[in-house]
TrEMBL record:
<dbReference type="GO" id="GO:0006261">
    <property type="term" value="P:DNA-templated DNA replication"/>
</dbReference>
<dbReference type="GO" id="GO:0005524">
    <property type="term" value="F:ATP binding"/>
</dbReference>
<dbReference type="GO" id="GO:0003677">
    <property type="term" value="F:DNA binding"/>
</dbReference>
<dbReference type="InterPro" id="IPR003959">
    <property type="entry name" value="ATPase_AAA_core"/>
</dbReference>
<dbReference type="GO" id="GO:0000731">
    <property type="term" value="P:DNA synthesis involved in DNA repair"/>
</dbReference>
<dbReference type="Pfam" id="PF00004">
    <property type="entry name" value="AAA"/>
</dbReference>
<dbReference type="InterPro" id="IPR051314">
    <property type="entry name" value="AAA_ATPase_RarA/MGS1/WRNIP1"/>
</dbReference>
<dbReference type="Pfam" id="PF16193">
    <property type="entry name" value="AAA_assoc_2"/>
</dbReference>
<dbReference type="GO" id="GO:0016887">
    <property type="term" value="F:ATP hydrolysis activity"/>
</dbReference>
<dbReference type="InterPro" id="IPR027417">
    <property type="entry name" value="P-loop_NTPase"/>
</dbReference>
<dbReference type="GO" id="GO:0017116">
    <property type="term" value="F:single-stranded DNA helicase activity"/>
</dbReference>
<dbReference type="InterPro" id="IPR032423">
    <property type="entry name" value="AAA_assoc_2"/>
</dbReference>
<feature type="domain" description="AAA+ ATPase">
    <location>
        <begin position="70"/>
        <end position="183"/>
    </location>
</feature>
<dbReference type="GO" id="GO:0008047">
    <property type="term" value="F:enzyme activator activity"/>
</dbReference>
<dbReference type="InterPro" id="IPR008921">
    <property type="entry name" value="DNA_pol3_clamp-load_cplx_C"/>
</dbReference>
<feature type="region of interest" description="Disordered">
    <location>
        <begin position="1"/>
        <end position="26"/>
    </location>
</feature>
<dbReference type="InterPro" id="IPR003593">
    <property type="entry name" value="AAA+_ATPase"/>
</dbReference>
Length: 277
């Protein structure tokens, strides 16, 4: 803990976590140098953002909220790699709010308490981005509730699971749920072109088409494939991409939405005699 003295006033004690030292600055620079490509080319404004036109297109709800500098608690529900984190950061920047992130996989009440303390000290509007919010249990979600209710925190949760089943009703009623969709082939082409430009590489059209189909609307997976294949082989072809991938990831969860989506696709493939349905 450190103290800041003000003339005629009692010293103000700052938590150790908020102190800045040369060591912490050098560590921050080191972390930035090792950032994955997906983080380096993350969009910082709606003009750079790709996808989700039903939410951020002209006169759509999130664009209107940004233009009017209005922010409210919300939950982004959608598959991986469709821009949930990026959109949350853009919203926070647009309204000049402090943006603090937690992963519900590893965070607990103490982490939320620390963020509340930081928000109190800063005095600025604070957005808590809670990734994988469905991983918070009922007690942890209950703990969040009063801070969201009073406005001390603006919550933006991200989840791949149906929030109606995973988020407690009192918290859900104080948030607006926005569904984010898989990126289209055209949007994936834009993502791939941006990644290629960042690594100063070229890719033939057949490799682009293969990568877009393989990623299945997941921008982060496509960007990671480009980064890894280029680092390993120095060239981007279907062969080098396949060598890097080794095995395709199947989006599936035993008890969640993707379980039923997979069953539905299987049934449709049998009806139409189409193995790629």
């Amino acid at each position: 803990m450190s103290q800041i003295k003000s003339e005629g006033k009692s010293p103000i004690t700052l938590p150790t976590t908020l102190q800045t030292t040369p060591q912490s600055i050098s560590q921050s620079n080191l972390q930035q140098s090792y950032q994955p490509l997906a983080a380096k080319i993350r969009p910082t404004s709606l003009d750079e953002y790709i996808g989700q036109s039903h939410l951020v297109g002209p006169n759509k709800p999130l664009r209107v909220a940004i233009e009017k500098h209005q922010i409210f608690s919300m939950i982004f529900w959608g598959p991986p790699g469709v821009g949930k984190t990026s959109l949350a950061k853009i919203l926070a920047h647009a309204v000049n709010a402090d943006f603090l992130e937690l992963s519900a996989v590893s965070a607990g009440k103490a982490d939320v308490r620390e963020i509340i303390d930081k928000a109190t000290i800063s005095g600025k509007r604070t957005i808590l981005f809670l990734d994988e919010i469905h991983r918070f249990n009922k007690a942890q979600q209950d703990y969040l509730l009063p801070f969201v209710e009073t406005g001390r925190l603006t919550l933006i949760g991200a989840t791949t699971e149906n929030p109606s089943f995973e988020v407690i009703a009192p918290l859900l009623s104080r948030c607006r749920v926005f569904v984010l969709r898989e990126l289209t082939n055209e949007e994936m082409d834009q993502v791939i072109d941006r990644a290629l430009k960042a690594v100063h590489a070229k890719m033939p059209k057949d490799a682009k088409d293969w990568l877009s189909a393989m990623a299945n609307g997941d921008a982060r997976q496509a960007i990671s494939m480009i980064e890894n294949a280029f680092e390993l082989y120095g060239t981007l072809t279907i062969e080098t991409l396949k060598n890097t991938l080794q095995s395709k990831h199947l989006r599936f969860d035993k008890k969640g939405e993707e379980h039923y989506n997979t069953i539905s696709a299987f049934i449709k493939s049998m009806r139409a005699s189409n193995v790629d349905a």
